[in-house]
Write a structure and sequence with these properties.
With about 160 residues, this protein is an alpha+beta fold. The protein is about 30% helix and about 40% strand. It has one domain: Gcn5-related N-acetyltransferase (GNAT) (Aminopeptidase, 3-Layer(aba) Sandwich), CATH 3.40.630.
Length: about 160
């Protein structure tokens, strides 16, 4: 199989994102939640696909948005068999670059305090903790987990030369 290609989400791909979320998370948004999110102004998505003799197989996704000069990573996921291979980092950098190109000067995200792998990924990409939402993630029967709000300043896009 080839190295996964990260491409922009196409119209109608929300069902694909919903299926990927179900394979990545214990609390997916569902088809309606993904469709509502993708339809919001400023939202863009990424799909990671591998190409093989069997065709193109989706293995990861990210959804983000830009409002005014701020980007936000809404969700990112990689299928379990494709984790720990740098794909989440590639999608994150692609989302950051796209947000920057759309006018964002910073990017925010929320991550569960106990998600050490994701926190390390974000820290490696320059995100710093700027806030906390107490008991934000509620996944019964487990105790609620705080969300850490992380932020990174994005580089200014290069000015076009005339």
């Amino acid at each position: 199989m080839s190295k996964p290609a990260v491409v922009l989400l196409r119209p109608g791909d929300h069902a694909l994102v919903a299926r990927l979320q179900e394979s990545c998370f214990s609390d997916p948004w569902g088809m309606d939640g993904v469709a509502r999110t993708v339809a919001m102004p400023g939202v863009f998505g990424l799909i990671a696909r591998v190409t093989s003799a069997a065709g193109r197989t989706p293995v990861g996704f990210a959804l983000a948005r830009v409002a005014a000069d701020e980007g936000e990573l809404l969700t990112i996921g990689v299928l379990p068999a494709w984790r720990n291979q740098g794909l989440a980092g590639r999608m994150l950098v692609t989302a950051m670059s796209r947000a920057c190109a759309l006018g964002a000067r910073s990017m925010l995200l929320e991550v569960a305090e106990n998600n050490s792998a994701a926190r390390a990924l974000y820290a490696r990409r320059g995100f710093n903790i700027v806030g906390r939402r107490i008991g934000y993630y509620r996944r019964p029967p487990a105790a609620a987990v705080d969300a850490l709000i992380m932020r990174v300043v994005l580089p200014a896009p290069m000015e076009k030369h005339r």
